[in-house]
Amino acid sequence: MTAREGGRQALPFFGILAAVASLALAVVFPLIKPLAWSVLLSFSIYPLFMKMKEGPFRRRSDNFSAAAATGMIVLFAVLPCIIVVVLALREGVRLHGFVLEVLAAMESTGEGALATLLPEWLVEHIRPWMVRYPAIRGWVRETAARGAVEAVSAAGDAALFLYYVSIITVSCFFLLRDGKYIVSYLREIVPLPSGQAAAFFDRGKGTLQAVVYGVLLTALVQGAAGGLGWLIAGLPNPVLFGALMTFFALIPFLGTAFVWLPGAAYLLAVSDWTGGLILLGWGVLVVGTIGRVLKALFISGGGKIHFFVVFVGIVGGLAAWGILGLFIGPPVMSLFLFLLENYRIMRKTRNLQQEAHAGADMASSGAGVYDQEN
How does the entry describe its membrane topology (predicted)? Predict the structure, then answer.
């Protein structure tokens, strides 16, 4: 059988494969984000799963180790996210109610009633603006109404989040238990030579490991340090605001300053110069330095790729996929550069082989001419 005949016989198979693959993609596509989060969380805790499997659960099946590791994911990753979402919704409802009280007081008794709801120094700043620009009342009222709509939308998003949590939990269990078989299968079907396929997966693993540990660990350390500074400055709820700093530390161009800077500004506005300056200096010198040092150490060092590539992957991934893109972007860029480098090497090798064959042909033709002349 010739190669052309073999290709013709394979066409029906690839046609059926493409059709079924498109249907499978349509089934999986709505779950892409929770499945991607499952892969990231499973990858992050997989070393602990292996220690459990080889340690306390070595005489039991992999189900026990996978269930224990999945429980730790729920306890230390999913549950804190749920708590933060619930606290944020509760605080949003309280803020909306407070704004409605301020509006009701303004409508019934005028601006003087603000003194019963707001600090005196703030009322002194607000009163002239309320007198000069009456439209501010309407703007505040419209903003409060939009806030109520957003609160309802956020409640719906919270329900969707809980739905995703159930998918993530189930997926993490099977990814942990059967992860080595899945990776082995993917290695076999990747259309690369065995050596390049192994290097491809090692490159992706190294970059993803560096990004996951670098971004997550840096965010956790920054959040803990920021919460400590919040407590030292004398502000309330340091645990809640430390958790918020951890969240915003994941977002480039916002970072923990999105939380501690307004806190420092508030302390300075109420004439608490000591607390305000402490929090400001702590945020810049301690929290900011921790972020720069740890990210540079883990991400660029662990993945063995240029920091600019990591930067483009993080920022571009954030724009394309949201928070998930922080972790997907750098590995995608790293694997693209890996394939590009392999293409460069293959092209260079092919050119050298062509030059060698051309030189051999010229040498043989020259030898033939020399023999004819003699």
Answer: Multi-pass membrane protein
pLDDT computed for residue 28 by the predictor = 92
Cβ–Cβ contacts within 10 Å for residue 13, how many? 9
Q: CB of 323 within 8 A of CB of 250?
A: yes
Answer yes or no: pTM beyond 0.70: no
- Cα dihedral across residues 324, 81, 162, 94: positive or negative: negative
Percent of the chain beyond pLDDT 70? Answer: 71
Nearest CA-CA partner of 207 in 320, 330, 71, 116? 330
Domains of the chain, residue spans? 31-188, 203-348
Indicate the residue type of 310. V
- Range scoring the smallest mean pLDDT among 9-13, 63-67, 103-107, 220-224: 103-107
The first and second tokens of residue 96, run together, are 């909306």
- pLDDT-derived band at 19 (thresholds 50, 70, 90) equals very high
Taking the CA of residue 211 as centre, how many other CA atoms within 13 Å lie in the half-sphere pointing to its CB? 33
Positive or negative CA dihedral for 121, 127, 132, 133?
positive
> What does DSSP assign to residue 255?
S
Which is higher by pLDDT, 243 or 168?
A: 168
Non-local (6+) Cβ contacts of 374 within 8 A are none
Instruction: Pick the closest to residue 192 from 345, 35, 65 (CA basis).
Output: 345
Distances (CA, A) of 2 to 93, 143, 272, 339: 73, 73, 85, 31
The angle formed by the CA atoms of residues 349, 351 and 353, to the nearest 5 degrees, is: 70
Long-range contacts of 96-100 (CB under 8 A, 24+ apart): 96/144, 96/147, 96/148, 96/151, 99/140, 99/143, 99/144, 99/147, 100/144
**Do the Cβ atoms of 334 and 303 come closer than 8 Å?**
yes
DSSP string, 311-343: HHHHHHHHHHHGGGHHHHHHHHHHHHHHHHHHH
- Where does the chain have alpha helices with state H? 3-28, 32-54, 62-73, 79-109, 120-132, 135-189, 194-232, 238-249, 257-269, 273-281, 288-295, 301-303, 307-321, 325-373
Phi, psi angle pair for 134, to nearest 5°: -65, -20
